[in-house]
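Title: Prediction job returns without error message
Component: structure pipeline
Severity: low
Priority: P3
Assignee: unassigned

Description:
Job completed but the reporter wants confirmation the result is attached to the right record. Sequence as submitted:
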Amino acid sequence: MVQLWGVQQGGLDKAWQIAVPFLERLGDYTDLSLDEIYEGLKDQKYQMWITWDEDVRGVCVTETFQTDEGLICCFVVAAGDRFKSLRFLEHIEDWARSVGCFACEIKGRRGWGRILRDYTETGQDGSKYIFRKVLENGK
């Protein structure tokens, strides 16, 4: 069974050591450097999530920000093994809903649309496609 750890500030340094090997895989898939991600986590601009079962399976970093439509949770980066099941996604969506987000967004390659069945393609940002899910009971 896949578990999800929403990393708190007190566990950031330990979690970062776990996360780096996964985040290093991102290479050209992100415009952010590891230093920028770490600084964003330290400044509480970003939130980090780690998935595991018998082993660590992946890392996801999110950011919440205000738009004209309301508060949104955006998946900044994600890297790992077996992410195609995305079992952890609903837990992050629940968290986003609990902090007042009306939607979650994921930017990535168009192929993610086949996996993100609850998400709607809403546009493009450069070479990345934007997928959005409006959260029920979102504020």
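Comment from assignee: result matches the submitted record. The chain has a mean pLDDT of 90.
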